[in-house]
Amino acid sequence: MRYPILIAALCSLFSVANAEDNADARNPLEAKVIVDAGWFLMSTDMRVRVDGENTSEQGSDVKFDDTFGIGDFDRFRADVMWRFSSRHSIRAMYFQNNRSASKSITRDVTFRDETFPVGATVNAQSDLTIAQLSYDYAFVRRPTYEIAGGIGVHYVDMKLGLNATVTAQGATGTRTLDQSATTSAPLPVLGLRGIWKLPHNLYLTGQAQYFYVQLDPYEGSLLDLKASFVWQLSDHVGVGVAYDDFAFRFDITDRPKFDGSLRWDYGGTVAFVSVMF
What we know:
Elements: H1 4-18, E1 33-50, E2 62-63, H2 64-68, E3 74-83, E4 88-104, E5 109-111, E6 114-116, E7 121-142, E8 145-167, E9 174-198, E10 202-215, E11 218-232, E12 237-254, E13 258-276
C-alpha cells in the first residue's frame, strides 16, 4: 500500500470519532474528524544555490525549474483534522512533489563540486516531501464561526540531483558529472485559523502559518497561506476547493549534505472531497 502509515492513522482517528455520540453534528464546525483528500494542481518556482563540499567555490544561483526544464505537476494531497474536544484539535497534512527532466542548458551551472558546461544535456531531479502537524486551540467559538491559534511543526525534506555526460577537458573521451544535495528541516510554526458558516451549506476556512529562525545551520523564514470553500452535500460528505500559497526562504550551512541557499515558492488549487465523522 502506498500510504500505509497515513491509512493506519486515519483508521485510528475514525475509531475515536465513531465512539462519540452519533447525534453530534457532522459539519466543518462540529465534526470530530475531517479528512480532505484530493489533487493539488500546483505550480512551483525554485531558486537554489549549492556551494562546493570539497572546494570553496560558490555554486551558481539558478532557477531550478526553468534552467532544467522541470514543469508543473499535479499531486495527491491529504489534510486531516481531529477535534478531540470542543476547543482543541490536531491537524496534519502530507504531500510529495517528485519531478525530473532532461534539458540542454544554455549557461554554465556550478552545482556543488562540478560545473555543468553550456550545451550539456543535464538530467535533473527534484524530490520534495512536505508534512505538517499542529495543535490548535479555539479561543473564539460560536455556532456560526470559530477562530483558533496554533503551534506546530512543518517538515520539509528535499533532494536535488544533477547528472550529465560531457566531453572530458583536453581529451576525446567523455566523463560523467553526478552531484546531489539533500536537506531536511523540521521547523516550528505559529498559526491562525478561522472557519465561518455561510448560506447554502457553504463553509469558508482561512489559515496562516509563519516561522522565522536564525540558528545554525538554518537562517530564513516560512510562510504558508491557505483559503478553502466546502459545500456540504450531506451529513458526512462535502466537496471543496482551496488555494494554498507557500514561501520558503532559507540559507543553509549543513555540510556535507547541503551548503547554500534555497528559495522555493509553490502555489495552486486543491480540489478535494471532505469526509466528516
